[in-house]
Every structure is written in structure tokens, then in C-alpha cells.
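Reopening this one. Same input as before:
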Amino acid sequence: MKTSEIVSVVITTYNRSDALLAVLAGLVRQTDRNFEVIVADDGSREEHRRAILDSAVARELRLTHVWHPDVGFTASKVRNRGVAAASGPYLIFMDGDCVPEVDFIARHKQLAAPGHFVNGSRVLLSPELTQAVVRGSEQICGRSPLYWLGQRLRGHASKLTHLLRLPDWRGRVHPEFYWKGIRSCNMGVWRSDYERIDGFDESFVGWGHEDADFVLRLHHAGVARKNGFCATEVFHLWHKEAARAQESQNARTVRERAQSDIVRAASGYAQARPDDNVVMTRLG
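Same output, byte for byte:
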């Protein structure tokens, strides 16, 4: 896509404003600033909402904060509401604990192509490095290979692939559906394709596999998966694992749908227009 085109970065968050502020700080440092940010807040407490809305870093961005009441883990629903507030023709989904490298937006734009979505990857950070980042005592964006080699040797980074920048070539495209490496914490898709499959399926509740269902339906719609490996990595801040009571049921649903040709969500974006329970605040 053209660098002059705006992209909408939709970031999910829940009661972790310190991590989200680190993510926003990474977005402020982007080499390509032609983007907007939609914070899709899955019901954070008021102190976390205020921490974001009152922050200096949020006001350096073209940012919209979309909040709905806390009724449990409803990532699909809040992502759809975030997209409803977005204006760009291309959407990049992130999680509120994934800090982007300085060329994250630029590289996503370079990989964006009609008929494809981009599935990025992540570098896992240790609890110790995560704490330093959220306290503001450690800057991880734009650092040298030597810095990251040291972090890797000390066990604070899971890999060093983000140091490589491989070109866009046909080997990135995977025509078949497979679950491995699906990351809604780092994914780019054309809005037209998103709307064609009716967005994320809100019938998925609780943690797990709503992103696999999303990718499966893109595959059924003829949208090919492009690997963002060695191009669009994010730094994933450490956290305890979420409760996974619904994971097996959600996985079963995806396996069943994989045997069909389903394209549109059972309950999706078409129902995601703001209502009286949604609070939207625009900054920047």
C-alpha cells in the first residue's frame, strides 16, 4: 500500500495501563506517523482509563479510546467496536502488551497487498525486562543488535529474529489454513476483507481461538496469509496466563468450521455499532 495511506491500529487492552502506555510510547517513535490509534478497551477500571486518557503520550497520537463495560473476556466484541470507530482502509490489530519496533507501521505497509493479510510475530520478554520497560527505566525500541544480543544471552528475550529485515517475496505467502503462529496481537488486514467476513465472531467468549476462527474465515473468503516474520515483530511484555476455561470449546468450534466453507461470523461486526453502553473519547 502507499505510504501516504492512513492505517488504523486497533489495540485491545484490559486493566493494564502501564503496559499500554509502553505500547503507545513505541507508536510515538514510528518512522511512519501516518496512522491512527483505536484503543479497544474490554472494560478496564476507571483508574486505568484515566491513566491512558490523561497521559502525555496519548495526546501525541491521533487516538480514540473505545470502552465498554466489563462482562468478562470479550476480545472479539471490543475489536469489532474498535473497528467501527476506525477510518483507515487497512487495519493493524495489536494487543495492549506488545511494544512495536520503530519501523513497525512502515513494514506492515510494505507487506500489505490486495488479497492478503499479514500475520506478524513476537519476541517474548522476561518478567525482569518487562518491569523495567513499564517503569520507564528501559527503552527497547530502536536499540542496537549488540543490545539485543546481551538481552538474549541473559535470558530476557526469546529470540533475535527482529534484528533481521527480510524482503517481501512469494515465500511469505501460505495458501493453506493452519493454526500455528496465528497472532491477533500483530495482524494486518484490509478493511474490505474484514467487512466481507463480518469481522471477529462475538460468539467466541473467554480466552482462545477467536483469532484462528477469524483467519479461517479469511481463508474461506480467498484471502491468503502472508507471514510477517523478520519484518513486523513486536516485543511481548510478560504477564501471567489468562484463565482458559473456554479454550477447548472455542477450539472445537474452529475445528468444526474448518470442515465447512463458512465465511461470515455468526455474530459479527455488522452488530458492532456503538450503543449506550459504549464510551468513546477522541484525542489528538
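So the earlier flakiness isn't reproducible anymore. For the record, The CA atoms of residues 197 and 264 lie 4 Å apart.
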